[in-house]
Write a structure and sequence with these properties.
It is a single chain. This protein is an alpha+beta fold. It has helices at 57-69, 163-180, 220-239, 285-294, 299-308, 314-321, 324-338, 346-368, 379-390, 396-406, 413-419, 428-440, 443-450, 457-465, 474-487, and strands spanning 7-18, 73-74, 77-78, 81-84, 94-97, 104-110, 116-126, 130-132, 141-143, 150-156, 192-202, 212-217, 247-252, 257-263, 273-274, 281-282. The strands form four sheets. Strands 2-6-7-10-1-11-12-13-14 form a nine-stranded mixed beta sheet, with helices on one face. A three-stranded antiparallel beta sheet has the order 5-4-15, with no helix packed on it. A two-stranded antiparallel sheet has the order 3-16.
Length: 490
């Protein structure tokens, strides 16, 4: 029996990403999610005799975009192959994929704290259908809508060391494919799912232990919990002197355990060979350069830019760059605000916009279930609201009321603020006579102030505020009251 041995986890992920194309990978049939079973089927995806596949050009473009974003080498020539296996939801009896010559190889994906996860390869393939085992008590039903839907499979190096790291890696991939707009990344719909290869080894060893594969996980939580459980299970086996079996396992979230699906020794030879109906995929330097030029600024680059150029706190920058539509909205608002030629620094403008987005906008999106792309306040109008707040034309409370009104009232913020009496009175000549008049009629309270009760200032401010139809600047009101009291000091 092995005792007092310290083990470490070794994890590699195979992530399947469903692409946002209108049609399938090799046929013109719709790739839309959510249709009635077997509505989006066609002779090509069903593998009927005499049909010929034609590769969707968008699949190539999306693969190259992801490869560039993950720092991969893009192959000038890659080959589509047939991967043979029998399963009821694979009507052709083979899956079109890539084997020896994938389109992207040898990249990496940075995680937090400087760690990089190596990318072995990214390859194109088509999805299989879906078997429904729980619809009737005696039969398995087959839905072929998903047959032929395009996928990218992202295979990592065994560089991950915990369930938490694997979950973070998956979240980074989801963020990236959504930034690139090549996938919606909806894990609950199966658009992003993964298989995890998990093994343990003695800490300090470079040898790889016997691995198990955990299949088809479609949530960050499942990935983390399944890997952590499998680590404990394998560690317990080795600590007792037993061996880990090379097998495929499934995760059961209700029990919090993995269970055996099949032994890897029984796995079939997929008999890969180049698909005779599909020519090699050629990516020219001109094609690659055009895709490079169309790439958006990626989240890690945006995060660094917001912190270094705009001097935003890391917390703000992380929230603003988490989703591309939010970052786009922030930048459009800031650009509009810059054109207004205010006296404030770029950092002050950026922080003011960030405050509105992180507070009011994101709260409204969550409460009203509105996506950033459909947010009813356009960036130019939010910039006008931000300008009013920066210039103290409205108070912080007034800004909240104005924001709420702007959600349904599409007039200019200035017009709405005028109608709602939210414009702050900031003219000393207009405020000063009112301050003097209020102090004239409250000698008792003035005496209390000079006896040490400084909190009575709040009483005077309230009295002044009530005299105006609009909203006097409370800071200026407080300043004027203190100045006048100083002049009346006994």
């Amino acid at each position: 029996m092995i005792q007092n041995t310290v083990y470490e986890t070794v994890v590699g992920l195979e992530v399947h990403c469903q692409l946002l194309t209108a049609s399938k990978a090799f046929s013109p049939d719709s790739a839309e999610f959510g249709a009635t079973p077997n509505q989006h089927v066609d002779p090509v995806s069903l593998g009927l005799p005499g049909t010929l596949p034609v590769l969707n050009a968008k699949v190539i473009e999306y693969a190259v975009r992801l490869g560039i974003a993950m720092h991969c080498e893009i192959a000038e020539r890659s080959v589509l192959a047939r991967k043979h296996y029998f399963y009821p939801d694979l009507p052709k009896g083979y899956q079109i994929s890539q084997f020896e010559d994938p389109i992207c190889v040898g990249g990496y994906l940075p995680l937090n704290e400087g760690k990089k996860v190596g990318i072995t390869r990214i390859h194109m393939e088509e999805d299989a259908g879906k078997s429904l085992h729980d619809q009737t008590p005696t039969h398995t039903l087959l839905d072929y809508n998903r047959c032929g839907v395009p996928l990218l499979e992202i295979v990592s190096e065994p560089d991950l060391r915990s369930g938490a790291e694997a979950s973070q890696y998956m979240q980074k991939i989801r963020q990236l494919v959504r930034y690139l707009r090549i996938s919606d990344g909806n894990m609950e719909e199966g658009s992003l799912r993964c298989d995890a290869n998990v093994s343990v080894r003695e800490k300090g060893s470079s040898a790889l232990g016997t691995k198990t594969e955990i299949k088809n996980m479609n949530s960050f939580r499942h990935v983390e919990r399944a890997i952590d459980y499998e680590t404990l299970r394998q560690t317990a086996l080795l600590s007792q002197g037993d061996e880990v079996t090379h097998e495929t396992r499934l995760w059961d979230d209700s029990s919090g355990k993995t269970y055996s699906m099949r032994s890897k020794e029984e796995a079939h030879d997929y008999r890969y060979f180049p698909d005779p109906d599909l020519p090699p995929v050629m990516v020219t330097s001109d094609m690659k350069e055009a895709i490079v030029q169309s790439m958006p600024q990626l989240p890690d680059d945006r995060l660094l830019d917001y912190m270094e150029r705009l001097h935003l706190p890391k917390y703000d920058a992380e929230i603003l760059t988490d989703e591309r539509p939010i970052a786009d909205y922030f930048e459009a608002t800031l650009d509009a605000l810059e054109l207004m030629n205010l006296s404030h620094s770029l950092a002050e403008l950026a922080k003011a916009v960030s405050n509105f987005i992180m507070g009011d906008m994101l709260r409204t999106c969550k409460e009203k279930k509105v996506q950033a792309e459909a947010f009813p306040i356009q960036p130019e109008r939010l910039a006008q609201l931000t300008k009013m707040r920066l210039q103290s034309a409205i108070s912080s409370t007034g800004a909240q009321s104005l924001f709420e009104a702007m959600l349904s009232d599409h007039r200019t913020p200035e017009t709405i603020a005028q109608d709602l009496n939210l414009i702050q009175v900031s003219d000393r000549s207009e405020l000063d006579p009112v301050v003097k008049a209020i102090l004239d009629v409250h000698p008792k309270q003035i005496a209390m102030y000079f006896q040490g009760k400084e909190s009575i200032i709040g009483f005077f401010i309230g009295q002044v505020m009530r005299q105006f139809k609009g909203a006097p600047d409370p800071k200026l009101v407080q300043t004027l009251i203190k100045e006048e009291l100083q002049r009346r000091k006994p």
